[in-house]
Amino acid sequence: MAEPLTAILVAAVGRQPYLALGLLILGLGLAWLAVVPARPRVALWAALAAAPFGLFEYLFYVPEYWTPQQWRLSWVGLGDLVFTFAAGGVAWLLATTPVRGRLSVSWGARRVARRFLGCTAIGLALATLIWQAGVPMYLASLFAMWVGWASVVWRNPHLRWLGLVGGPAFALAYVAVLRLTFGLAPEFHQQWNWATLSGVTWIGVPLEEVLWATTFGAVWPSFMAYVLDARALPVATGAR
């Protein structure tokens, strides 16, 4: 019985490896929530806020960076949305692990919308300008994210620790899950446009993916903490 189930799983991952990658990351997040005390509501918001960025995947990265096989309606891919949702939630969970449930956030709707939309618009505009200047979009977006992170921590130095924890933690987790996906679906490796990449790999993972994971893991939790005006509370206080 186990062998047919394994064969079915491998076949399913082989048909939709990008979607499988997103689901595996999502599974990691759910497992993390079950083991490490955290605030699932905030993690859910971090995931939901990241999901819309999946709408830009096809417009900016296909086929220059890669061409993932996935179910798609026009430029909207299911794998894109699942992946960005899962990545946003897991990046937040990993970065905030040191404070666990001791995180105070403010849900002021106007401030949240103003900060989120304003920073997103500036970041997209900066990345697009650099891209139009001839820089590959995957590099332009990384640069724009680091500029955004530097701006946030310059004005909010108490958020610097999120990037220092989240960057390496998410990169290690992402590389492990991506390696697992490569093992289940070896052909997934061929969906990157290797002609435009550096050709450098780390344990079989493109260097560009490692750089993206490190950047996203550092920037996204810091950005969401800024949007939600999050602060770590003393151990004896607890979160509200």
Structural class: mainly alpha
Query: Roughly how many Å is the radius of gyration?
Result: 18 Å
Total domain count:
1
> What share of residues is helical?
55-70%
Short description:
The chain is mainly alpha-helical and 240 residues long.
Overview of the structural elements:
The chain has 240 residues and is mainly alpha-helical. It has one domain (2-232). The protein is built from nine helices and six strands. A hairpin with a 2-residue loop joins strand 1 and strand 2 (76-77). Helices cover 65% and strands 5% of the residues. A two-stranded antiparallel ribbon has the order 1-2. The relative contact order is 0.17. It has helices at 2-15, 17-35, 40-50, 57-61, 78-95, 109-132, 137-155, 160-184, 207-227; strands at 72-73, 76-77, 103-104, 201-202, 205-206, 231-232.
